[in-house]
Design a protein that fits this description.
Elements (H helix, E strand, L loop, with lengths): L1 H45 L5 H18 L24 H4 L32 E5 L15 H5 L5 E5 L3 E3 L5 E2 L4 E4 L5 E4 L4 E4 L2 E6 L2 E5 L5 E6 L2 E5 L7 E4 L2 E6 L2 E5 L4 E4 L3 E6 L2 E3 L1 E3 L1 E3 L12 E5 L2 E2 L3 E3 L3 E3 L2 E5 L2 E2 L7 E4 L3 E5 L2 E3 L11 E3 L4 H4 L4 E4 L2 E3 L12 H4 L1 H4 L10 H4 L15
Parallel strand pairs: 1-2, 2-5, 3-6, 4-7, 5-8, 6-9, 7-12, 8-13, 9-14, 12-15, 13-16, 14-17, 15-19, 16-20, 17-21, 18-22, 19-23, 20-24, 21-25, 23-26, 24-27, 25-28, 26-29, 27-30, 28-31
Antiparallel strand pairs: 10-11
Pathway: Glycan metabolism; pectin degradation; 2-dehydro-3-deoxy-D-gluconate from pectin: step 2/5
InterPro entries: AmbAllergen (IPR018082), Pec_lyase (IPR002022), Pec_lyase_N (IPR007524), Pectin_lyas_fold (IPR012334), Pectin_lyase_fold/virulence (IPR011050), PEL (IPR045032)
Protein name: Pectate lyase
Length: 444
Amino acid sequence: MEGLKMNRISLILFIAFAAFIPTLKAQIDEVWERRAQESWNRTLESYEPDPVKIVTHLNTNVHRTLKELGALEPNSTRRGLRKKYTGPCMVTNPIDRCWRCQPNWADNRKRLADCGLGFGHNAKGGKSGRFYVVTDSSDNDMVNPKPGTLRHAVIQKEPLWIIFKQSMVIKLNQELIMNSDKTIDGRGAEVHIAYGAGITVQFVKNIIIHGIHIHDIHMGSGGLIRDSVDHYGFRSASDGDGISIFGSQDIWIDHVSMKTCHDGLIDIIQASTGITISNAHFTDHNEVMLFGASNSYSQDEKMQITVAFNHFGKRLVQRMPRCRYGYIHVVNNDYTHWNMYAIGGSQHPTIISQGNRYIAPPRNPYAKAVTKRDYAPEAEWKTWTWRSEGDLFLRGAYFEQSGDPNWSKKHSEVYDLIQASSALQVAEITKFAGALHCIVGRPC
């Protein structure tokens, strides 16, 4: 009889839970569907119909900075053998010039929000909000995060400027799902997101991620995860990206050091736009960056991304970036390593490469090409606008251009009036790429 009673109780509980599941699922779907629609509306608002204006603004600032700093050191292919810089604070690009060499930077952290350039220049993060100090590196409760943890900080609805009380290694048990209007600012501490899941920026806006290390990222198993103070739901397994940007707008990633993630270091998909990736240092990875994940998702036409002042370093293989659709400005980056190719794409993305240094692999004669097109015959990809202007090619590297050869003449505001800085200066422009070792009370 006791066994029969227990079976009846189990049956009642099963029926009650089965009745509850459709309600829960509908609630989850409604929340994410609403966010998706709001995100698409923001994409249309953020999209710049005349992207060359943003390109020109960035290039103008580069030239102004270098003119004021004077001539930089001549270029060298032996960047990797240079000793770590130990001299006085030195800035070599306009983003860093805006804030870095001020000894009181820690008292004026939010100045950083006014320093962005490129398509992500509208990203202000948590500038209008209060400071939130992360004091606890743990990540044990996905549904009710502990106050003082990074997960508790990023799910808040209000704008927040998130800083860290001390250096820490944060092992995320599941993907870290960010809410809008947040800055993650690692300056003044050594902050590592490592040995667990990565950061997810999905259907949100106005995010700055600055000054942290992201490495050794694994897939998350999925499950119940809180994504805001008033909502949590079931999530499938995360891909293992370092940073995944999905249907989001006005994002700036600056001075991060990234390596060794399960999937990509940075993936940007689903009509995300208004994005700048700057001053980053990438190493030890195969598929570095993916911009647009599906040939069938034509909404990625609205994707606009600036890749500026980054160092693509040792033991990288491909996708720096790999693009579908969109308008991608690649300017004054240092490509010192790749094993297959540097920049690839399909679905006719517009790729404007200006003032970059491309150093081909020394011992692979089949990997000299910077560019790679996929899923299109030559007759088709020859019409795509992939232009190289002022790039430097070493060790036999070459950029297969396509599209209108007179494109630069038709866009004189980009190419003739103001150009990117000389590729001969790229090693110095990117000299301080990656997370900086900032000490409070000293220039960073």
